[in-house]
Write a structure and sequence with these properties.
Helix content: under 10%
Strand order of the largest sheet: 44-45-48-49-52-53
Number of helices: 3
Radius of gyration: 39 Å
Largest sheet: 6 strands, antiparallel
Structural class: mainly beta
Length: 779
Amino acid sequence: MQRGRLFCLGFLGLWLCWLGCQKEPWICEPACGEGAYCAGGVCHVFCEGETFLCEGRCIDPRVDVEHCGGCGKRCAASESCVAGRCLAPCPVHAAERCGGVCVNLQQDAKHCGSCGQACSASQTCQMGVCECAPGTVLCEGRCVVLSSDALHCGSCGQACEEGKLCSAGSCIQGSCPSATPDVCFGGCVDRSKDRYHCGTCGSSCPHEQVCSQSSCVCPVGLETCGAHCVDLLTDRAHCGACGQSCQQGEVCAQGSCVGSCPAATPSVCFGGCVDTQSSPLHCGACGVRCEPGLSCQQGVCCAPGKAICDGACVDLSNDAAHCGACGQACSAGAVCVRGKCCAAGCSFARQFGGTLYTYGRAMGRDRQGHVYIGGNFLSPNAQFGSQKISSGTSYAIYVAKLDADGQVLWVQLFRGKDGNSNHAYDIATDDAGNVFVTGRFSGPLAVGSTTLTSINDQYDTYVIKLAPSGAPLWAVSLGGSGEELSYGIAVDAQSQPTIVGYTTSTSLGGKSLDGQGGRDIFVARFSSAGQLLWVSSGGTGASDGGQALTLGEDGSVFFVGGVAGGAARFGDQSATALGSSTVVGKLDGQGKFLWTRFFPSSWGYGIDFAPKAEGGLLCVGGWIQGTTNFDEIAIASGGGRNGYVACLDKEGKARWARVLSGSTPSSTDYIRALAMEANGTVHAAGVFDSASLTVGTQVLQNKAAGKWDFVLARYNSKGDVLLAESMGGALIDEVRHVEISDSGGTFVFGNAESKDFDFQGKTYPFQSSVFAILLYVGP
């Protein structure tokens, strides 16, 4: 341009302009127009940068649809010019081009939010933002699974020591549990269904897919089209079938290409017709996917059984702001339990123990509402409220008295010889509030000023009587030439304790036994001062055992247990038990067997009697395997062992029976303890390791399939389910006893290993290796 301007200023320039620049001879540059210059009487165009002259104008061949890649190379009307190539338009669901490729900036991990904005290898793109996938958290720039990452086990930066594995968020010694049997990079996983280790360690499924039977597959309801999981009902590029794309201006509705969306699915998301209030792929907004197992309710991803209140997914059974119904808030200090508001303290959890092992095995309750717990422990610093006790170097027995809120009033300790393991298995009280404890011991056992000594240093059983203050009143042992254990105790109106268990001896306390030899069931009664009044035994002579007992109003005894099968004799009562069988029997007040009943393919653990309910209702609980007949009532397990509750009349005739159905064929589920209200309501507690447990119409989920969780079920006198709850964590948690409060609530006692014990929506981060735990579930 400068060259043309100077040329025109001179005389020679004026003369040339007159000859060649006919229109405006005196002003050359404007005559050629913007971007051109006049030289030699000709207007010249000067193109800058990547543009060049084509048909009299400067064009960019990379984007010009008239000259795409070169002069005269025109794109079709529907095409666009991208990097010098004519390309068809991008589909609605991937409307942006990055490097010539159609992408969805809301979901593309290589172009998240804008072209070239890539997420890290462990992140996904959600709504244009790089995030860790659900189930993972960001630790030191990497998305990790805290339950199985050896460098971040349970929390960021918490690495397991050399030789330990990360299992369920805890560092463990030894092998992985059965629920997550495979080791991947120091963590315990299940490669058959772990999306980050699917089939082989480190093989991660795409965000859209899940891991099933060691293969990455699309979730149920979606189909694989190319490398993506799509909904053939709403995907514009795959409408009705893979590769079947809708035309420009059309949308996909119910698998068909249409001009506009119907009323049932009014919103357009990436060219598909959806209802954002219910679509799990577009929940609340386009591109918002609900994780597997969640559904879209009112535009919010929510778990089954929960409700949407104020735009949030809540559990109406335990949400204090929405208790039983949306907007129904509990008052200050109250909590929500099963959809009802109740004052603080209506449900609680209490932990007992030290740094090592404390087992909760025994429980009782007195007329004043106090709760008594007992068991055995090995720990130098076991804590019971404000009181601390030490077991020494061997397992010792503890007994503690609590108030109705679970606060410790006193704790007693009974030690034996180093190397021996002593236990408390059951507790009962009399009308005066005296406490009776039974269990097993070997060698010497110091109880106040009394020292009990077992025969031949084998296990014998015992009864200890304590005053309401906890002071020992007396202690007696019961043993023979063999081994004895007592699992249950009850006290009659005369303060006489009766115990039940098993024996391998031919005589006890100088009294001959009428058993079959081997291991038999025995029942024994003592006076209020501790003298043995009578002892009776029976069974098949194989691996039999009495597990629990309860008393009739006339001092008679009902007991439950199990026999291994074969010819059984209880006094003058004889019968044949088919395989492992629950045995239920009755003795009179002098120890004579009145009747016995056998129920095959099962074992009994808990029993109680409500004399005024339904003319006398006797209920038992335990496990069944296969099909079990309670007279004309048949119930069946799901393949493994499942828990059961059955109620009989006072003569042993079955009234009803219910099974708690586990979902896992190899499960070990059972009812461990049972108590009854006067009206016949049954409170039954036990454990289940099935992935899920069906109780009536309710389905309970296990926190870690293959590990025991607590289960509590309540039935009315007709067998209808009133309540079903599960509680527990990722490790082994075991129920031992139940008691009923005056208001109809349930005390549940046992022991647990889980560091993440969950009870009614609250997690208790207990840290002992094994701890005793008392739960109260309000009425």
